[in-house]
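User: Fold this; tokens only.

Assistant: Input:
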Amino acid sequence: LKLQFLYFIESKMLRANRRVLGYSQQILKQGDGKTFAEMGDVARIEFKLYKEIGGKVTRIFRGQDTARILVGKNQALHAVEKALQQMSEGEEAYIKCSHEYAFGEKGIPPSVPPQTNIEMEIKFKQLYRFDGDA
């Protein structure tokens, strides 16, 4: 319950301010403004990931560009979790983040070198909410 409360407070704060040290989010398309993901919800997203090395931005992990994320359970990059806390269903955003919000100090060689900053396009396509009675 305490973790859910902290998640709720952080998500409210982040919706008000979309710039945090090492992380920025630009809205490309507004969502419905009322359907926000909460801990335990499943969000269907579309995304494209890019790495930034030496000022050059290139796409990584071509192919699987859709995912279902169980929100608040660390099943995705920290940047994706943070984005979903701020986005409403139907919203599209462009995110830039430091390695701390992405693949960390070690990266995922050879695709993502250590300490690589990441950029991504993310579309919050649909929210699945479970009431616990199903």
